[in-house]
């Protein structure tokens, strides 16, 4: 294993990292903490590491950087006891580096059981700065919490934001240019229907769907079936399909269990709960609870389902463009979720799609593809007004396809904005 590590280290040090699109994440390169990047497979964690490496190469020697991808087949099968060979092999090649600061970047490290013990030991005993990535929220965060407490900074990574998406497509943002706005709106349509995984950007719609199906297979078999020993693959796939076909809708897991049972699945209620939680652990789906002041009340109410990428809906739903309102809602959820894990919906006499706090700011957001009809307009506005009174807020947002205005209701203001403009950082974004 030691010789394999030497080869991997050397090969990477000689590799040029071109074509990296800098992302919106501000990952520190000089922190004394272990930097952890977690998120769904293929969302760009590796290329964020490559961007970090390019920044490091501007000021330090390439030999002071170690990058290992633990999904490299040359490392299989690898166990925790084999990890000692990594730094031993490195110091055999560069004995003088023992006295220098070395950057160690470990990609998809969750593939190795008890990886965190090794990382903690080299962090405590060697002159290193460490970056790790993983594709499981629960496993990685649980391991970090127990073994790396106080030693780590964790960043959640998602597929491209709309701003990153435009940057990757080399579309300049100028809201005062008709040409720029035309390109932005055209890109938004692709962003909404095909999703924003980096690898899919330059592909045809058919190839994009094939890539996304492969991603789902990876998530199902690598992150769920193998990791948790899932036996009922058919049920798991059905839950995945159900989730992606019902984004933005209220779902009770009890109701879901009864529905599967009526379809002939021989399954316990706990199994449905577990399988759904595995999908959340793998960052494939998210669920937002109703906002209440106690957890028990939150748990008694149904949750709203969202997907980590809009493109996953199209894998199962050939008529995805028939339901643009849900695509809009999922995009708005992801924009908020990138900024905070605490995203809720509000329900009183009326319902509001999203309530959250970002830093010290409260946000209320409703999403309506179009508000042409008077009844739709009144419903959306009345819901926001009720929620603003409940949360004692003066401002809220209503996201639409292309409508823009400011509505005053007493002392309160509702900013009606096109989705593209809101995603790019307009009022209350």
UniProtKB/TrEMBL annotation:
Q: Name one Pfam family in it.
A: DUF4143
Which portions of this protein are annotated as coiled-coil regions? Answer: none
Q: Which residues form the AAA domain?
A: 32-166
| InterPro entries attached to this UniProt entry | AAA_14 (IPR041682), DUF4143 (IPR025420), P-loop_NTPase (IPR027417)
- All copies of domain DUF4143, residue ranges: 222-364
What PANTHER family does this protein's entry cite? AAA+ ATPASE DOMAIN-CONTAINING PROTEIN, ATPASE
This chain belongs to which protein, by name? ATPase
């Amino acid at each position: 294993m030691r010789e394999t590590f030497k080869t991997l280290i050397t090969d990477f040090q000689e590799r040029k990292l071109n074509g990296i699109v800098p992302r919106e994440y501000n990952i520190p390169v000089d922190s004394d903490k272990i930097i952890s990047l977690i998120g769904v497979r293929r969302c760009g964690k590796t290329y964020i590491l490559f961007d970090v490496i390019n920044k490091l190469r501007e000021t330090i020697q390439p030999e002071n950087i170690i990058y290992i991808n633990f999904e490299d087949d040359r490392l299989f099968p690898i166990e925790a006891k084999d990890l000692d060979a990594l730094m031993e092999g490195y110091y055999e090649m560069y004995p003088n580096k023992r006295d220098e600061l070395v950057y160690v970047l470990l990609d998809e490290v969750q593939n190795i059981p008890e990886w965190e013990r090794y990382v903690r030991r080299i962090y405590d005993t060697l002159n290193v700065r460490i970056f790790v990535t993983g594709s499981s929220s629960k496993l990685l965060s649980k391991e970090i919490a127990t073994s790396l407490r106080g030693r780590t900074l964790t960043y959640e990574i998602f597929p491209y934001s709309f701003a990153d998406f435009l940057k990757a497509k080399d579309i300049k943002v100028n809201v005062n240019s008709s040409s720029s706005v035309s390109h932005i709106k055209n890109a938004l349509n692709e962003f909404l229907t095909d999703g924003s995984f980096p690898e899919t950007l330059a592909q045809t719609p058919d190839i994009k769907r094939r890539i996304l199906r492969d991603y789902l297979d990876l998530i199902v078999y690598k992150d769920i079936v193998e990791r948790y020993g899932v036996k009922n693959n058919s049920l798991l796939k059905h839950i995945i399909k159900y989730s992606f076909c019902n984004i933005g809708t209220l779902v009770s897991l009890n109701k879901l269990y009864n529905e599967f049972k009526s379809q002939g699945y021989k399954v316990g209620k706990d199994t449905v709960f577990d399988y759904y939680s595995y999908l959340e652990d793998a960052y494939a789906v998210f669920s937002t609870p109703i906002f209440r002041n106690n957890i028990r009340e939150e748990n008694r109410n149904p949750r709203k389902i969202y997907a980590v990428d809009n493109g996953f809906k199209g894998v199962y739903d050939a008529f995805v463009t028939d339901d643009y309102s849900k695509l809009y809602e999922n995009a708005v959820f992801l924009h908020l979720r990138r900024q905070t894990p605490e995203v809720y919906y509000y329900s009183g006499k009326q319902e509001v799609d999203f309530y959250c706090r970002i830093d010290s700011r409260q946000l209320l957001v409703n999403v309506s593809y179009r508000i042409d009809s008077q009844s739709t307009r009144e419903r959306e506005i009345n819901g926001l007004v009720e929620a603003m009174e409940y949360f004692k807020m003066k401002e809220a947002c209503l996201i639409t396809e292309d409508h823009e205005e400011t509505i005053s209701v007493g002392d309160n203001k509702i900013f009606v904005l096109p989705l593209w403009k809101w995603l790019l950082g307009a009022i209350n974004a």
